[in-house]
Amino acid sequence: MGYLNHQQGYREGLLETRSVVKKEAYAVLTPDGLVNNVVPGFEDCDMSILGSPRMGARFVDYLVTVKNNGGNKEGFGGDGIQTFLYVVYGNVTATVDGQTYELTEGGYIYVPPHLELKFENNNNGEDSRLFLYKKRYQEAKNVSKPEVVTGNVNNIEAKAYEGMEEVLVQDLLPADISFDMNIHILSFKPGASHGYIETHVQEHGAYVLSGRGMYNLDNDWMPVDKGDYIFMGAYALQATYAVGLDEPFAYIYSKDANRDIEL
Ligand code: UGY
Ligand code: MN
Q1: I want to staple 244 with a disulfide (CB 3.0 to 4.6 A). Which of 91, 96, 143, 212 is the partner?
Q2: CA of 166 to the centre of ligand 2 (A)
Q3: Among the atoms of ligand 1, which is closest to the Cα of residue 186?
Q4: Are residues 135 and 238 in the same domain?
Q5: What is the count of structural domains for the chain?
């Protein structure tokens, strides 16, 4: 593994990876190959840029490890760019429009495109890890702009997904046409699966929170594990079987929604 667990230098065996990148189509990025990127405005943060327009996405996802006094005190997003922050572990204080929000593990905040997100670590000197997202907001005629949304997934109802009790879905944002996207968590008991191989225009960036799965991406069956990132481009074939003994296979993912396709 690379910088995430400080194991760098020569390794015992041959170099190998499970990561696959098929630009515009799909990608699986394992923690092994992620590198630390410097991004202006982020201080004392280890940052990996995951899905991005260079991969074929119309959004950017990041995995951020926020150190002791780290964070973004300058402001992230705004000026047409909406942002979303999810706490994988740790505690952060987010500030939006002068208001502060204390976010613990499973906590999240959505910040609409006219506002900036600031945050700092608040975890008694320990690191916090975040899944961060940004996307240019797509306006629509006679549709109002979204507001700030915050919550914690531990307080969100998990509903059976498409009639399957072993697959649970949580919607982190309201089903409201002012949003041009949503963020969901899907959780599959071992052995559970999608009901069909999806073929849709929407894109996803997904971060695996727990468990393991065999994921069909454009009819390639890819093993995926906790900590992996999956990009599914527009029309990428997609479905999974959860594998493993007891841990559910769960991932948080974004999906564009509520808008026509622009020409
Ligand atoms: O919402 C979705 O499109 C979701 N079912 N896709 C996925 O899990 N790959
Ligand atoms: Mn899908």
Answers
A1: 212
A2: 17
A3: 8
A4: no
A5: 2
- Distance separating alpha carbons of residues 168 and 192, to the nearest angstrom: 10
pLDDT tens string 227-238: 999 999 999 999
Of 195, 186, 199, the closest CA to residue 237 belongs to 199
Q: Which ligand places an atom closest to the C-alpha of 254?
A: 1
Distance between CA 238 and CA 207 in Å, rounded? 15
Q: Which residues line ligand 1 (CB under 6 A)?
A: 186, 198, 204, 232, 238, 255
- Ligand 1 center–CA 159 separation, angstroms: 14
The average confidence (pLDDT) of the chain is 97
Q: Show which of 115, 138, 154 is a domain's final residue.
A: 154
User: What pTM does this model have?
Assistant: 0.98
CB-count exposure of residue 246 (10 Å: 0-12, 13-18, 19+): exposed
Residue 199 forms part of a structural domain:
yes
pLDDT in tens, 128-181: 999 999 999 999 999 999 999 999 999 999 999 999 999 999 999 999 999 999
**Cα of 57 from ligand 2 centre, angstroms:** 14
CA of 204 to the centre of ligand 1 (A): 8
Asked if residue 170 is part of any domain, the answer here is: yes
The residues with which 239 forms a beta bridge, in sequence order, are 216
The torsion angles phi and psi of 145, rounded to 5 degrees, stand at: -75, 150
